């Protein structure tokens, strides 16, 4: 078991789930469903359609795009 703290975009996930009431998996699906949209288009979608703050939206989009296989 790792004792390393979670870093990067995933460090926001607990607060995103608590604040917006959906699991990270749900948010990630929403982003993946909009691919191949651009990063900032996806951030804007989360902000405009779901009222998410910029940092939280950016964290979800960055994580989805970083784990995407070509």
UniProtKB/TrEMBL annotation:
<dbReference type="Pfam" id="PF14117">
    <property type="entry name" value="DUF4287"/>
</dbReference>
<dbReference type="InterPro" id="IPR025629">
    <property type="entry name" value="DUF4287"/>
</dbReference>
<protein>
    <submittedName>
        <fullName>DUF4287 domain-containing protein</fullName>
    </submittedName>
</protein>
């Amino acid at each position: 078991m790792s004792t390393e703290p979670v870093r990067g975009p995933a460090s926001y996930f607990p607060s995103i789930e608590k604040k917006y009431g959906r699991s990270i998996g749900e948010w990630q699906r929403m982003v993946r469903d909009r691919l191949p949209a651009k990063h900032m288009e996806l951030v804007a979608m989360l902000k405009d359609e779901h009222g998410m703050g910029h940092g939280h939206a950016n964290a979800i989009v960055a994580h989805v795009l970083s784990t995407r296989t070509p």
